[in-house]
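INFO worker-7 received task bundle
INFO bundle size: 2
INFO processing item 0
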Amino acid sequence: MNIKKFLAAVAAISLTACEVSCGAESNVSTSEKSTEVTTTIVTTTAENTTEAETTTEASEEEDEENYNTGDASLDNIRNQDNIGENELLVISFGTSFNDSRRLTIGAIEDSLEKAFPDYSVRRGFTANIVIDHIQKRDGILIDDIDAALERASENGVKNLVVQPTHLMNGLEYEELTEKIASYSDAFDKVSIGEPLLTSDDDFKRVEKAIIDWTKEYDDGQTAICFMGHGTEAASNSVYQKMQDLLTADDFKNYYVGTVEAEPTVEDVISKVKKGGYKKVILEPLMVVAGDHANNDMAGDDEDSWKSLFEAEGIEVECLLRGLGENEDIRKIYIDHAQKAIDSLN
């Protein structure tokens, strides 16, 4: 494949994503079986704390763990050979939380497999520290990007479609496109799907998905707060864009914050207090419910979101579930993959 043409295509995708412009999407009608969704709920008050299955993760380097993330053997790691000529490679950051990995990343992969039966769906993770941790703990080896691309090449794949589960076109997405470009000559055709939040239509669909997902908690007296990861890159603007969309659509008790950037948890707490809310629902605005959700959001350390809200005398309920568990979110990934497949022709 001509590397210059490929890099030009990647640049066009990245520019479109960075501008968060509205693009035409192909609608794919899929019939999916309902996916098992497990949500761990933690209800607390400032005076009395009730814990329900909240776990604390030790560092990735520790030999022993004092928590159980589920049965790793239930997860299809999708590193099989005999791929065929068409491969749909799903790239994710990854998580060592076994149940969440299966119910989020695994569910996205399963949905893509059902939507595109002519493609073999395979997996790759970008976080080698997660890969190493899972291998050491569970004896299971998940392909990193290089291993996944080499496997595709060795299996004689001709048409490679890569669909990232990334939330935005940030630094990780850019690094991913550069890595794929370095392997592009190994395949006849290569196409990369867009991240979850790319076009204006994506934002509207994600907004509707999270509103519908939390409507049972929206009693007019409860603030519903989503915790994103955050980044120092310009792509961090997706969080404020989502907040602005929610506010403009009169969902004024919905708030978006980040762990590592802006809006901060202090910003969110200030808005919740200004609104006079006495209870909050906390939920990750992340594909998986892994370390950040379990510890930075729902953990018992004094700097967790739960603890900081409690310190203000606000009742907290945490929903430990990732966006990948939501069928409407998975449909967006299907549409992005369809667009990438269409571009091969």
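INFO item 0 finished
INFO processing item 1
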Amino acid sequence: MEIGEHYPTSQNFSVFAHYYTAAEGGYTTFAEGDLYMNDVRTSYNSVIKGWDPKTGSGVNYYWPKQGTLTFAAYSPSSVDATYDKAGIHFADYVVDTDCTKQIDLLYSERSYDQTKDMMVTNNPYNGVQIKFNHALSSILFTVRTDADYQADNFTIVLKKISIKNVRSQATFNQGLEDGNGKVTKPVADHFGWAGHSYKKEYVAYNSAKILTTTAEYTENIKVTNLRENDVQNTNLILLPQEFTDQQLYIEYEIVNKNVNPELIVAQNATFNLNYYGASWERGKRYVYNLTFGFDQIYFAPEVTEWDHVVLTPDVAIGR
């Protein structure tokens, strides 16, 4: 894979690097090494058509003639991150409730014991291969009706989709293993995230969409998606977490055009997320397919019995 494949040129990432002599045996032994690049902002250079520290931080960095460098990175550069033997850490990271401010948070796999001769060729320069992973979870929604209700002059209008009681803050530890297969800094759960706190409501859709039998992704303000060729719309990018009291909340309208004036009936529905799975995990995209269906009104007519009344006295005729 070429360097920068799928990574947009508008983004910046920051790099850590440690230097190791041949005597130290390289980073895979988890020797301390010496800090060579400390949280260096790296940006796209349109001249070389690649990323370099000079463009991002104003300083060039150079390969040593002996020894090796081990690299790690995170994206975007605007977030706070630290790096140690266990990898990248995001302390008390908060996902904004404003979906326009949510970001696709990335951390890289470690590029061990690199030398200039090992670089991936991407003319006109050779670069360190940085493979990013998604630290968060992507949430998408599709919506449709199970029948053509408009044929009967009923229109279903989606008004809002939100997820309530979502934990908005947590700490991420990459939790890399040492040469003996032991995690150098244990993570609290299998997500890599721990210390979840602060319940928030995240609104994925808040407009008015007429639904049809064709499933469509809900269109909201688009969140920057770091895979440039990915045409799907990401509604929410949230913290990986286990489900306890998180709920999916939906508002919609039934518009009855069979009466004059037409009648708009406001409706809502709430669903427990743990019915549809136990958790969101990092690096996974979850698609919730919302299908709106309604029971047809039928009638079961019956007629009450006559109440038999015998009148008295008799009606006397001819007497």
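INFO item 1 finished
INFO post-check item 1: The radius of gyration is 30 Å.
INFO post-check item 1: The helical segments are 53-57.
INFO worker-7 idle
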